[in-house]
Amino acid sequence: MAYYDIALQSCNIGAALESSLGFKRIFRAGKDVALMSAGKKGNFRNAIVSGTNKEMLAEASRTGARALVIEDMRIDRSLMDTMVKKGTLLCMPMRAITSREGLDRSKEIFLMRGMFDYAKHRGMHVAFVSLAASCPELCSSMQLIEFARLLGADEQYARYSISTVNREIANGNED
Amino acid sequence: MAMKIKRRYLLVECATPIEERGRAGFESMLFGALLAQVGAMHYHSVNPKIAGFVNERRFVIRTSLEGYKELALALAMIKRLGGVETAFYTLKSSGTIKALLKEP
To answer: Is A135 near chain B, with CB under 8 Å?
Structure first.
């Protein structure tokens, strides 16, 4: 099974590191796939859109965003409804866990577990990505699978997400 | 008859080089950081031990079979060691060191 991850453009990854971490490819958000802020004006089509404002995120979903990153990890039912209707993927950045410490990290895990649980219940596809800004924020494929399991995914779903859903974010439905 | 303890070996890559002279210090700092991540209640079940160094960046860590997933997660959460920014990537896991170090 080939695994894929998405990191930020600022993350300088060599081909050797990419393969030793167990990924076929680590896509760069901002280069291989557009990454936009929900508040900004522009074409959200096929982009990863991140933000906290639920209205703006819902608008991005309606206008064709491929995936959303809900930064505060608070569940908004109407936003999730829009995402389900439009087939928008939910992106869970592991950087939110690894870059925090102590109680902040625990709180983030709690919120992300709740978000994943609700998304799975609504039948949404969830992508587990590192969205690393630098190399120390990256995870290996094995660690990404364990993070997905920590958030409540079973092993089969975790592997499916990291291989198929992550590739879909960067490439659309094509191979 | 004593029950055989099943172990698991993980091949771990460190983002920053581990100096040969400072390996003992590195080991104690790493175990301190792991204790902080897994907590005193779980540390004994993870039971980590460095089985050997492969090169200046890679090493093999031994753990119990039931604790290896927790160890992989704990390693991913360590981002600073001894005041230096670093990261630990779990590359492979196996039941024997021989299989772990075998080239794919």
So the answer is: yes
Task: Let me know if residue A62 belongs to a domain.
Answer: no
What is the domain range of residue A131? 4-34+75-171
B85 to chain A, closest Cα gap in Å: 8
Chain B residues inside the 8 Å CB shell of A99: 79
The string of pLDDT tens digits covering residues A125-162 is 999 999 999 988 999 999 999 999 999 999 999 999 99
pTM: 0.90
* C-alpha A167: how far from chain center: 11
CB B61 within 8 A of CB B8: no
| Residue B21 phi, psi (nearest 5) | -70, -30
Helix/strand/coil (H, E, C) string of A106-154? Answer: HHHHHHHHHHHHHHHHCCCCEEEECCCCCHHHCCCHHHHHHHHHHCCCC
Residues B15-55: pLDDT tens digits?
Answer: 999 887 688 889 999 999 999 999 988 899 899 999 999 99
Domain positions in chain B are 14-94
Residue numbers of B between 29 and 68 with CB closer than 8 Å to A? none
Residue A112 lies in a domain: yes
A55 found inside a domain: no
Q: Say whether pLDDT at B78 is over 90.
A: yes
Q: Give the CATH number of the domain where residue A108 resides.
A: 3.20.20.140
ipTM of this complex > 0.90? no
Pick B91's closest partner by Cβ from A105, A138, A140. A140
For B14-94, CATH gives 3.30.70.3250
Mutate to test the interface with B, among A98, A142, A144 (most CBs of B within 10 A): A142
Q: Which of A98, A135, A149 sits opposite B76 (nearest CB)?
A: A98
Which residue is it, tokens 């119990």? B64
